[in-house]
């Protein structure tokens, strides 16, 4: 049975969101950047649902480079849903 390509929930970590800030002269980096941009395009057209988390927001807010941090924050504003960290997750520490 094939899985339909709609309503998928996608989670991208900080490395994914920051990939476009890396050296795009490297073929692997450029391809990864293009793949991430394609994933986000599907999320932004509401075919897929982009899920973020409190942990991701924390990591983005602690990114040392102001420009990268601001770019990632703009992207995070477009997410479909944020998953909060609860008591159970906090005990996993």
SSE blueprint and pairings:
Blueprint: E1 9-11, H1 14-18, H2 27-44, E2 49-53, H3 54-61, H4 66-76, E3 81-83, H5 87-92
Parallel strand pairs: 1-2, 2-3
User: Structural class from helices and strands?
Assistant: mainly alpha
- Oligomer classification: single chain
- Cα-to-Cα separation, first versus last residue: 38 Å
Number of strands: 3
Work out the radius of gyration.
Answer: 15 Å
What coarse outline follows from CA principal-axis ratios? globular
Beta-strand residue fraction? 5-15%
**Largest sheet data:** 3 strands, parallel
Question: Count the helices. How many?
Answer: 5
Helix content percent band: 40-55%
Give the topology string: H per helix, E per strand. Answer: EHHEHHEH
Low-pLDDT parts are none
> How would you write the strand order of the largest sheet?
1-2-3
Write down the overall mean pLDDT: 89
Description:
- Helices cover 52% and strands 12% of the residues.
- It has 93 residues and is mainly alpha-helical.
- The protein has a three-stranded parallel sheet.
- The radius of gyration is 15 Å and the shape is globular.
- The protein starts with 8 loop residues before the first strand and ends with a helix.
Provide a compact summary of the structure:
This protein is mostly helical and 93 residues long. Helices cover 52% and strands 12% of the residues.
List its salient traits.
single chain, mainly alpha, 5 helices, 12% strand
């Amino acid at each position: 049975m094939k899985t339909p390509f709609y309503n998928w929930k996608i989670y991208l970590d900080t490395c994914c969101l920051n990939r476009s800030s890396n050296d795009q002269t490297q073929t692997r980096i450029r391809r990864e950047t293009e793949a991430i941009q394609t994933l986000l395009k599907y999320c932004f057209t509401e075919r897929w649902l982009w899920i973020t988390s409190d942990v991701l927001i924390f990591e983005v807010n602690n990114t040392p480079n102001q420009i990268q941090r601001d770019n990632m924050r703009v992207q995070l504003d477009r997410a479909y849903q944020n998953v909060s960290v609860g008591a159970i997750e906090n005990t996993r520490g």
